[in-house]
Amino acid sequence: MNQEILKKMKSPPEVTVNSIRRVVSQYKESFAAWFPEEAYKWRAVQCFQKHWNPERADFAEMLKESLAQAGNLLDTNYSFPCKMITFFAEKEPDTVRSMFQQLLAPGADIVEQIQSFKQSADTLLAKYQFKESMKQHYQKDRTICTYLFFAQPDRYFLYQYGKLKAFLAETGLQAACKMGDSQNVLTYQEVANRVLSCVQQDSELLNLFETKRAELGSLYYPDSAHHLLTDDIIYYGSQLYKSDYWPSPAEYDPEISAEQWLELFVDRTVCTAENLLILKTMQELGGEATCKQLSLQSGGTSAHYNSSMVQLARRVQEKTGCPLVQNENEDRKWWPILFVGRTALPGQPGTYSWKLRDELADALKLLSQKEVNDPMPFAKNTILYGPPGTGKTYQTVNYAVAIIEGKSLEDVQAENHEEVLKRYRQYRQDGRIEFTTFHQSFGYEDFIEGIRPVFAEDTDENTGDISYEIADGIFKKFCATAQPPVVDPKQNPYGFSESPTIWKVSLASTGDNPVRDYCMKHGCIRIGWDEYGESITDDMDYHVGGKTVLNAFLSRMQPGDIILSCYTAHSIDAIGVVTGEPEWHPEFDEYKRLRAVKWLIQGENIGIDEFRLEKSLTLSTVYRLNTTVESVIEVLGKHGFSGIAPVKGTKGPYVFIIDEINRGNISKIFGELITLIEPSKRLGQSEELQAKLPYSHKAFGIPDNVYLLGTMNTADRSIALLDTALRRRFSFVEMMPDSGVLDGVEVEGISVSGLLTTLNRRIEVLFDREHTLGHAFFTPLRQSPSMQTLGEIFRDKVIPLLQEYFYDDYEKICLVLGDRKRPEQQQFFQVEPPDLQSLFGVEPEFEVNPTYRINLNAFFDAEVYRNL
């Protein structure tokens, strides 16, 4: 090792050792959560070691295979060294072969080797950059050191300047480290060797690592010299240093006091109730959280919380005129008004963590709990009812957004509706809003759960029979989404996702077999259908079956899902959690499809009755089990898995919209669940109720954060006929025609608002108020106030509705339209006396009804409407 580097390492030996041991100690504490995320590096090294052979004739292909698992160790979002070096190898394989041979030559000076490699890359770039529109080759010190490490992992380490600088700062080690200095590589080697010395003396750490490494199997590099483990500890230490918050007080202060924050909290033009709930959630999480943690806690996407806080910061700045931090990134100019930030800690969900500013945190402490937790005056079950065209479905958008964001309805209605609609669509996409329409064919099976057929060709059971499975309905699925996670994301020793699916998997067959032994030893599950090859396409004929199983294994199964390994038709021998995506392993003789699994317990003999499964397991290789996460956790506890008792989190409001709720058969659709929608009977309330469902036999309750919002048309008198049980469990909000919506809208001097008012007054006298005309029919005139549009509204909307209302009593329809006040040519309906003599040959002695003809010319005549 270069002696000059040794001289530059000025830290006293005892300080060096203690600071390194501190990082190692923290690494061990975080190992269980940290290591699985970094294990890809061991796989990348093993891949290189397996394929590297510079003497191969097809050098370029060999290089691609060797670097296939390198991932972000080489390429990043804006740097593509792997892509470039393989491109050069395709163009000039012998040149690149020589570059690598010189780089890896024994005994050469590492700094000189790196410089020579870069110079050769410069030459290749100059040769091809104009022809191929390339700007750079990306072969920098970090990249070339990665090649060195891949080839000789027991000699080198994974150098990176930023990692070195942060680790030195975290540990207090003093060494020369300057951006662009080629000697940094030697400094890193010496620092890594010092860390390696501590690693080799820590038997606890080595035992942890060896156990985990053995679980990974032969696809991962053994790392017997522990160089990659050492490098991982250095990376971990560098991340600890990055936990320092930005911006520092010296860099930026928004100059907003706690008292000013309190004033901003109650100003709804600045801080919405939803903003306040997010801030309060952060306070409950200890004053700091990533957007991912907020998403896990309250539902929705991480992007939603990021956007919500940036928009709040913008409004705060507009209101207060506070200074902004200097930053080229647009979003990073705004959120520092509210928070200081840092890279998420090892094991912390998400990538970047926000911490409440001290003054903001103090203001939240002063704020009463009621002001935060009681922002929404909405009933849990609401029906909007009224005549046709009064905007009931339109208003469900405003109601849903107001409920979710904790705003008043008036605040949302005052906003630009296109912006509200945009947020509504995003909430639907996030799963926080669901919309359905009731109709006469809609039933319990559609709404809650039912049984659907599964054909034999869709499974791996080639019996020719039809089987049946229980399928969740739209409302049951929605309630499952709205429910808080069974396991608090902050206290999750299992590795389950927020809403994991539970899968039964058969490993080759029942009982002991080589495939089962391999899977238990190497942490995976394997299935077959090798006949189809690695790629499964939509147009395959599945001539040996397995369509449903392959779809489940390859597409529906996700990391964080739960695996129950089937030992017999009535027992489970292992429980695990999926940790990887589907893989294809041609080296196996059979069962070549694989997914990585972390086994929580194995070698057991657990009866399926412990999972509350009431029938034996079938032969199908992979299928979803109708049991619960709570049951799985209970079984894990009984069979020796040591973990934290599950603690539920909380979620924000979810809104389920039922359009035309009166069109469905309520008793048929809700069944025994009609009682469960009562606010006091919701999950978590004082009178909480759950019902045992008839098909799955599972207990079901409605989460307290689910809001039911229905719409109902009164023109058919259905509100009077509505199921009494439903009526007493819903709050009703009447929505009558509002001509004020049309104030200022004129067509050739005709007031549309006055027109609607006149028509509805006549209808109320001739019929009743429930059969008036809604203002929504006329809202297109706000965008297109023309006689053509007005005529089309009367022709296509108003006249057909009046014909329905009055059952073809055209005299009353004419009275509503004011026809009898106008000359015949301006009447919507013209009376045509029949020519009885020509029709019948005689004059009947009884009274004959007149014939009414629609006068199409009247619809587009402005004088008709002026005299209406």
UniProtKB/TrEMBL annotation:
ATPase dynein-related AAA domain mapped to chain residues: 651-730
InterPro entries given in the database record: ATPase_dyneun-rel_AAA (IPR011704), Methyl-DNA_Rec/Restrict_Enz (IPR052934), P-loop_NTPase (IPR027417)
TM regions (residue ranges): none
A GO molecular-function annotation: ATP hydrolysis activity
Pfam family, one: AAA_5
Protein name: ATPase
Organism of this sequence: Butyricicoccus pullicaecorum
